[in-house]
Amino acid sequence: MAAVVGVDFGTLSVRVSIVDSERGLLDFAVAEYPLHRKRDDPEYATQSHQDHMRALSLATRQALSKAGISGDQVEAIALDTTGSSVIPVGKDLEPLGEYYLWCDHRAKGEAAEITEAARREGLEAINWCGGVYSSEWGFSKLLHWLRHNPSQRSQFVSAFEHCDMVAATLCGITDPKKVKRSICAMGHKWLWNSRLGGLPPEQFLIKVDPLLTGVRATLDGEYATSDEIAGTLSPYWAGQLGIKPGIPVPVGAFDAHWDAIGAGCRTDDIVNVVGTSTCMIGITSSVNLVPGVCGVVQGSVHPQRTGIEAGLSAVGDIFSAIATRAGTNVENLSRELEQYRAGQTGLLRLTWDNGDRTVLVNPNLRGMTLGWNLQSTAQDELFAAIEGTAFHTRIILDRIAAYGVPVQRVINAGGIPQKNNVLNQVYANVLNRPVLVPSKSMVGLGSAIFAFLAAGTFTTVEEAQEKICPSHRVYSPDRAALPIYDELYPLYSKLYFAFGEPGSGEFGKILPALIRVAESVNQGTNVASR
């Protein structure tokens, strides 16, 4: 028997799981940290590295206590994080400010410039991330930071994804060149591609903006899959966490990618990791490029397979916002949703409240609800939003299938499917295929699996999955709902592309115009003068 620590950094908290190779999950603990937002800037979202590390220490000690084991029994610790969450650092990896969290969209302009330059210069790497660079990703955020922090540019040494920063911190690494960078993070969010020589060429980055001169060199180093070791736990952080020093810390990855492994994802499966947003993670043996899909990266999910990523920019956040506007919470508003029938609300909900991650990759969108009447309720909107996220998921699966990526099974993982049977059934009905849901919470199990690999307890991902992953509950399509959703889905799809694509006509200009007007007013400029 062996015990490991699996760490999962989410948007609002870190969960630390203690997992035994024979008995599975022993116990876990959660510690929260603040998300910093600004009411006058809805695109702003940051977090503190120090807050993350304090929460990690607290949760690890609590988890060990609850599991009833001592820290010297732990054989390895592995961690995943949100992504793309980017932090610029100075000397000795000292943070130069806070993380640009994954949901920080301030770099919309920078992302558009990178996309335009990539198309103009024929940068092949852009095709591997769907043809459009996102405001959620690394280079756009780093360029935004360089432009808006001129007084700190001289201190800039490098920038890191959260998963790499935490691993380096735990290992006591202070030289950026000695930090192993996650292929999962850099491949999906930084245009890194081993087939194309790694990161984009220096001359391309300079053409985007001369401020990126020399940045490529600061990001250089060893890029690795998560079956490799980032380092060993330093004595200082061993003391903070309450576990023994010198144990291996594997190269980290993004939470959704490891959640997919923990949910039992195998080759040709797609896992919808449904939480505040949805990350759709697939493992495939093919290397097919899919326009609008966030990334196709060898070794990003499974070290020996190709990983594919897509997703929705907001799901749970939308449900919470609907409940908040109604003066309640999601749990209360969800009561009696089991009684709702497909399409009964008369509403179609476009779930763009935080922009579109896939397949449009367009942050200049906002949520839309069509079909209101005087009797429509907040509960109606919540059900329509669940349907809307399912319709959006179907659009993504249709796009993936159209470009030759096989999908054998659909698994709903993450926090929401564990407690929302209505969502799982709606997804099965809209997708017209069985939806599998892990029978127990699997948060942290993906991290534990890679910790076990680092400790040498298991030799393959599949061997560890057989021992650690829970079985699945199956939600089968309801025949009565299928013809209704077959009628509604084409309407949703038509609205999705008509309002979501900037070049699709007059409708495609409406939502960006609303955003522009609101931003102008909030910034105190004279809208009428434009």
Number of separate strands: 23
Global outline: globular
Q: How much of the residues is beta strand, in percent?
A: 15-25%
Distance between the ends: 69 Å
Q: Helical proportion?
A: 25-40%
Class inferred from helices and paired strands: alpha+beta
- Biggest sheet overview: 7 strands, mixed
Radius of gyration: 22 Å
Which regions contain 5 or more consecutive residues with pLDDT less than 50?
526-530
Number of contiguous helices? 17
Mean of all residue-level pLDDT scores = 94
Order of strands in the sheet with the most strands? 17-18-16-15-21-22-23
Keywords:
17 helices; seven-stranded mixed beta sheet; alpha+beta; disordered C terminus
Quick description:
With 530 residues, this protein is α+β, with helices and mostly antiparallel strands. Helices cover 35% and strands 20% of the residues. The protein has 17 helices and 23 strands.
